[in-house]
């Protein structure tokens, strides 16, 4: 039963990760800037790295509890994508400005992989 809670926690963390980008875009294009966005964006920015680490760790534990080993599964593909995103963060200074574009695009790829994993976990 613990694997279910870890799976839900991982999904919430992924949405939390994507919310930083979404709220920044929303704030950027709003004609009148609400004051509540400034502390919200600061909180999301400060928590982004830590919640990313938590997503990778909790996602791995979730997968190991269910499968008991590493095997080809939609969850492992999703987890591997999250791991690639985290590794890309570690090398952001070497890649330069292209890094953020790749990082954001990969975020939406992870969202699609989450949908596939949730609705069709054993499709592979």
Briefly characterize the structure.
With about 120 residues, this protein is mainly α.
Observed structural traits:
single chain; 124 residues; globular; mainly alpha; 5 helices
Describe the 3D structure.
The chain has one domain (2-119). The protein is 82% helix and 0% strand. It has helices at residues 2-29, 37-67, 74-90, 92-95, 98-119. The longest helix has 31 residues, at 37-67.
Low-confidence stretches: none
Task: Tell me the fraction of residues in β-strands, as a range.
Answer: under 5%
Order of helices and strands: HHHHH
The number of helical runs is: 5
User: Main beta sheet: strand number and arrangement?
Assistant: none
- The end-to-end span amounts to 23 Å
Q: What is the number of beta strands?
A: 0
What class would the helix/strand composition place it in?
mainly alpha
Q: How much helix, percentage-wise, in residues?
A: over 70%
Work out the oligomeric state of the chains in this entry: single chain
Rough outline? globular
Q: What is the overall pLDDT average?
A: 94
Instruction: Work out the radius of gyration.
Output: 16 Å
Number of domains: 1
Keywords: Membrane, Transmembrane, Transmembrane helix
Transmembrane segments: 6-27, 47-70, 76-93, 105-123
Describe the secondary structure blueprint for this structure:
Layout: H1 2-29, H2 37-67, H3 74-90, H4 92-95, H5 98-119
């Amino acid at each position: 039963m613990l694997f279910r809670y870890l799976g839900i926690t991982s999904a919430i963390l992924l949405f939390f990760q994507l919310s930083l980008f979404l709220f920044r875009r929303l704030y950027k294009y709003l004609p009148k800037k609400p004051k509540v966005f400034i502390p919200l964006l600061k909180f999301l920015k400060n928590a982004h790295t830590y919640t990313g680490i938590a997503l990778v760790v909790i996602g791995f534990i979730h997968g190991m509890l269910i499968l008991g080993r590493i095997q080809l599964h939609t969850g492992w593909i999703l987890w591997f994508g999250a791991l690639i995103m985290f590794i890309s963060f570690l090398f952001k200074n070497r890649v330069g400005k292209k890094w953020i574009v790749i990082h954001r695009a990969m975020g939406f790829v992870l969202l699609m992989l989450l949908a596939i994993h949730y609705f069709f976990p054993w499709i592979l």
